[in-house]
């Protein structure tokens, strides 16, 4: 265990694949399971920072995730990419604009901003022409690249990941890294992932997949990076929680909705 002080906490709001678990129309054992750790909403993260709180991604279940965890405030959102399961909760940020009495910053790459502006065009119209201001999210974009930046008392390091052919972002915050929706990690990003306490890493299922790591590929990355502990996320209904954990190395477990991870420095 690290002897460094805890400065923040990461909560995994959702740990499921794009279809979620249980999956619509499926009666497999995992989808019918009574084990709550087999119930996986779409992927997202909440970080309680020294000077506020922020999200990574906004899943379609964001309202349910935030109320489940009794989260009262969000001061910013980071995005990994603009696939539907990572952005469709954007409108649920409306309440936080009211509470802040100002815009909620959205940190993302320019291509993600373009998609969000198109998908949620009503949210980015000129406030002067809105009929009722309270019917719209109050948001503003902040473009990011690969330089670390300060956010609410934490240093955030964006990481280039490849999701099939799509370039996406992962994030390292202190000694914890979150790398979802990834099938390849470039060497320059692998270097930035050394010395981790905890790695949260994509592992869809056991079979090969063109845009996600499977379990074996994720374990190869974990063996290379040697974090103290690793959790597998973006998990499908093909991986039963208890059975899969029995097959994994001692320091690797399936992530689950509501898992809390201390961030140290």
TrEMBL record:
<dbReference type="InterPro" id="IPR036866">
    <property type="entry name" value="RibonucZ/Hydroxyglut_hydro"/>
</dbReference>
<protein>
    <submittedName>
        <fullName>Phosphoribosyl 1,2-cyclic phosphodiesterase</fullName>
        <ecNumber>3.1.4.55</ecNumber>
    </submittedName>
</protein>
<keyword id="KW-0378">Hydrolase</keyword>
<dbReference type="GO" id="GO:0103043">
    <property type="term" value="F:phosphoribosyl 1,2-cyclic phosphate phosphodiesterase activity"/>
</dbReference>
<feature type="domain" description="Metallo-beta-lactamase">
    <location>
        <begin position="41"/>
        <end position="234"/>
    </location>
</feature>
<dbReference type="Pfam" id="PF12706">
    <property type="entry name" value="Lactamase_B_2"/>
</dbReference>
<dbReference type="InterPro" id="IPR001279">
    <property type="entry name" value="Metallo-B-lactamas"/>
</dbReference>
